[in-house]
């Protein structure tokens, strides 16, 4: 009665079956993707995009210079208002709550 549950054993010696066709429940494998040979890798990181800011007190657009130290205060070029620390402008995401400036629309 339970004959159909037993595995079938072959009496003859034959080569082992192909592993890809052995299991019926396995899904077919996807091909292995590779990088194209000969594509050069970038040697250096691309420069950071220049973010334009707008002073809240006067509305003047400006950018934070890259050579500014993180602990140095950034001032508006027009009204000379202290807008925040350079590190707050460079943070990801920028610390808007600590700045007196907002990102300018492109």
Structural features, described:
The protein is mainly beta and 106 residues long. The protein has a domain of 52 residues. It is 8% helix and 16% strand. The radius of gyration is 33 Å and the shape is elongated. The termini are far apart.
Distance between the termini: 78 Å
Mean pLDDT: 76
Helix content: under 10%
Structural class: mainly beta
What does the overall shape look like? elongated
Largest sheet: 3 strands, antiparallel
Write the element-wise H/E pattern from the N-terminal end onward: HEEEEHE
Number of strands: 5
Radius of gyration: 33 Å
Work out the helix count. Answer: 2
Strand order of the largest sheet: 2-1-5
Q: What are the segments in which pLDDT stays under 50 over at least 5 consecutive residues?
A: none
Fold topology:
Layout (H helix, E strand, L loop, with lengths): L18 H4 L29 E4 L5 E3 L9 E3 L6 E4 H5 L10 E3 L3
Antiparallel strand pairs: 1-2, 1-5, 3-4
Sum this structure up briefly:
It is built from 2 helices and 5 strands. By secondary structure, the protein is mostly beta strands. The strands form 2 sheets. A 3-stranded antiparallel sheet has the order 2-1-5, with no helix packed on it. It has a two-stranded antiparallel ribbon with strand order 3-4.
Task: Give the key terms.
106 residues, 2 helices, 5 strands, two-stranded antiparallel ribbon, three-stranded antiparallel β-sheet, mainly beta, 16% strand
């Amino acid at each position: 009665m339970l004959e159909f549950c037993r595995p079938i054993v072959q009496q003859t010696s034959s080569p082992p079956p192909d592993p890809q066709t052995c299991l019926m429940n396995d899904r077919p494998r996807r091909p292995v993707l590779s990088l194209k040979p000969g594509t050069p890798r970038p040697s250096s990181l691309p420069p950071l995009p220049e973010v334009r800011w707008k002073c809240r007190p006067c509305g003047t657009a400006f950018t934070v210079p890259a050579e500014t130290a993180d602990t140095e205060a950034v001032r508006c070029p027009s009204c000379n208002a202290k807008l925040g620390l350079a590190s707050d402008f460079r943070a990801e995401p920028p610390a808007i709550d600590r700045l007196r400036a907002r990102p300018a629309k492109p």
